[in-house]
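Lecture 7 notes: from sequence to structure.

We start with a single chain of 326 residues. Read the sequence below before looking at the structure.
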Amino acid sequence: MKHTPFRLLYCTVLTLVLAFSCIFTIAPAQEFLAYEQAVPGSSVKFKMIPIQGGSFTLGSAAAETGREEDEGPQKKVEVSAFWMEEHEVTFAEWDAFFKNMDVPQTKAIDVDAVSRPTAQYIDLTWGMGREPQHPANSMSQQACIMYCKWLYAKTGIFYRLPTEAEWEYACRAGTTTAYSFGNDARQLPEHGYFAGNSGGKYHLVKQLKPNAWGLYDMHGNLSEWTQDQYDAAAYNALADGVKDPTVAPASRYPRAARGGSYVDDASVLRTANRIPSNAAWNKRDPQIPKSRWWLTDGMYMGFRIVRPLAQPTAAEADAFYASYLK
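Now the structure, written as tokens:
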């Protein structure tokens, strides 16, 4: 067929458009994948698991065995995407901060004169062991947030504690049952350390089965701090479909923890169970005022960290940390 001038011009323009589209194709967004975070200045690394955002039902059904009043009423909740550490923060990770902190801070926790953790005045592992891959224990919520702030200063990536909603969403891993593996507590020894199989002590991380999203020890080993103020009636105030709910800090006690620990009965390790902190967790502290870093009677307390996909600005990050460290 004979090519008209118009057809030749059209073909030429189309060819140029296709060529330039290949050259100037917009780069795809950073892939939302698991990654290893190295801690600068140390040999420490830890793995972060991507948790796709989505909706789920927060709380437990009225018929769930062991259910407590503060686990309801159930509400439909939306959670934004985030990464979560695959296991509880270990002593290897904590000690990179505790023993080698080199980022200047100023009075991050006002009871202590400096932002570096004060020395432990007794063995807060209580003889359970302090191997690098043991979960770090006996830290207050504020100490855990101070660790996140230090990690942010070292890496430039904003890390924090999970909200209660994020924690439950990640633990459920798409399930609606009492545990991430189902309703049968007889299977718990395969998934978490509790009073029935712990021998009265915490254990190395990643020894038992992870949940469907690759998260270890969400049930048991150590109870895990969240960032929320604990409010027994919090779910009453939530509207169905609310996005990223959290309860901001208002007082030192109570703050919210999740997961249960090696000293707890199986029911406490249920996914929806909520644990309010208590001043009694530090009753044997001989200091006046009592330390805001360590828990003399909270040897079952630990934490894991999250990184939101949508990172805050530097000013927003500083304001967030400051709201908890006062």
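The first strand starts at residue 35 and ends at 38. Keep this in mind for problem set 3.
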